[in-house]
Amino acid sequence: MAALYEGYTLCGLVPDQNLSSSGIQGIEEERDRDHVVVTDSTRSVTLYKVSDQKPLGSWTVKQGQKLTCPAVFNSQTNEYVAVTDNKVIRIWKEDDILLDKAFKATVSSDVWKVHCTHGGEPVVLFQRGAVRLLDSLLAAPQQPIEEVLAQEETIRWSTIIVAETQQFIIITTEQKGEHFLYLQRLNPNSVQRYRLEREEPGLSPLSFSAIYKDKHICLLYLYPNGHMYQSVLSVRGLGTEEGVQALPLPRSLLLGLPVGDGQLEAASAMALDEAHVAVVGVPHPSAGGGKDFLCIWNTNFQTLQAGKEMAGKIYGQLWSYSNKVFIPHGKTLSIIPFECPKSSLASALGKLKHTKTEGELNQTCHTLRTTRKSQSTTNLTTDQVLELIKTAPVEEIQKEVEGFLTRSEFQDLQPSVGQLALTLVSRSLADPAFYSSSTLAQLVHTRCLCHSVCPDLVLLALEKKDYFLCQLCLQFFPDIPEAVTCACLKTRAEDKKKASAPSQLICPVGLHKAVLINEILQTPYSDTFLLPHLKDLSSQNVMLFLQYLQFLYLKYSQDAFPQMEGFRSPSLSQIMDWVCLLLDAHFTVLVMTPEAKGLLLNLHSFVKSQVRLVSELGKIEGSLQQLHKMKAKESIGQYSIEIIELF
């Protein structure tokens, strides 16, 4: 199941006065996955290091000049390429200080955009549809540029894709309400023109995205009515450049997204891989109005996989590089890391974090359909159940929700389950006397929920000291933020034992907290985002947590603990990773705490024993490799003695 992780700010924005534009013209990945080039809408290009959000260089054109296309990085020459005032191509290196003193060349026709793939030569796309490789253009900047587009036909979007070692330029255009697509191959040059099918009268695509898969180019485009279409283009058999005829472009409806009241305006969709698409500016199906979300949808199974609310105005812009989404919103350019595991029906319905048996998902469905069928006497719709949750007592809600889950088809549950959970949590937060633990647990068990769909659920469970529900959420939700993980660590579940120097073979925490910590140890996390929250833990919590980790380690060393059937336990590597994280976050405090001295010495001995084990294994590594390389003799009798010499 796809997941959106905790985001961070790359830089601030300077949107225009009426907030119609974010002030960003383009974002391009640079020489590696940790650098991006950001071009604003007026005069500046800035190089950022993504991992620490630091600007490494910035270049600005003179007052009165304007950047008219986003800068790109040419990895062949380690140079940047941009266009100012539509016709002036500028090229510079990272150590150049002033753009005005860098190389520039004026061409004879207006440039739409410069495209560049990693390792490829930059390609210049002109506003009238002609294409030139950068080097051939600079050899004669004033060469005549032909017009490919028809009269009154204008470019709306373009991109470059590498397919079968060849570069393809994809252009979408508009002419008198009709929309066209050009697929142009470079070296040898060939082009094909397609006509897009018409949508409702007056509707034009809001965004386009393209990926290459299965030897075809897949084009995704989103309309204001929430319809997302896919068209598949062959990269073979393109026509010649002369006399291009517009062929009809078949399409298929990929998703029907919710639009709320009216139609979409500032919305955008981008393909992340073969089965997932990121969408911004489209209402979350389980949230109320007035909120903007970044969502990931699974296009194979048409399910919402993850969602994250974005504060401030959404501008309908979206970029994606190296499993990170770059999204301008309000006055901030944010980076949201994401993960899209290989798609399957089970994972699309929420079954991702652990795999037990292949029939487990079917068993869940069977249980929902056969348990207490007779208890629900009415067939309520989703809206009726939602209204019931707002006022009815716990017992009635539990009965009707169970009946609703029993009647519903499993593949249709996800949007409904999200709405039910949000309504239950909202009432529980507003009315302290109301709380339906079993109903919430049953909704989590459907595996149609994730943290981003119902972000207050885990914190509500902690507030109600519902540690079983916390355990289920940690077990089934793939996108729990690191801040919530640490909030679970702070809970006081059956700690009546003292934290001061317990016996190493006695569990220092109660059963409920031990089970909760075991789930925490197996929860996905990012070191960068987790460490700041770990530093907020009190020294007492840290000591208790380390003592429990020590207890787990000793259980592993006695071979009495690991992976008993039906018992979810962390791996040894997960235990040691968390020991290291806690020491990194609190080492200075622990060194200054007298009560921690014995614990630190014990942990030191654990690490020392691990190092010694690895060292001893290293000594016999060569011998083991020689044994592996030896060929077994073809004829061996019933009994034989063979002497092997190891050097």
UniProtKB/TrEMBL annotation:
GO cellular component, one term: nucleolus
Stretches assigned to the Nucleolar protein 11 C-terminal domain: 395-647
Single GO MF annotation: RNA binding
UniProt superkingdom: Eukaryota
SUPFAM superfamilies according to UniProt: WD40 repeat-like
Domain named Nucleolar protein 11 N-terminal: residues: 1-338
InterPro entries: NOL11, Nol11_C, NOL11_N, WD40_repeat_dom_sf
Protein name: Nucleolar protein 11
Gene name linked to the record: NOL11
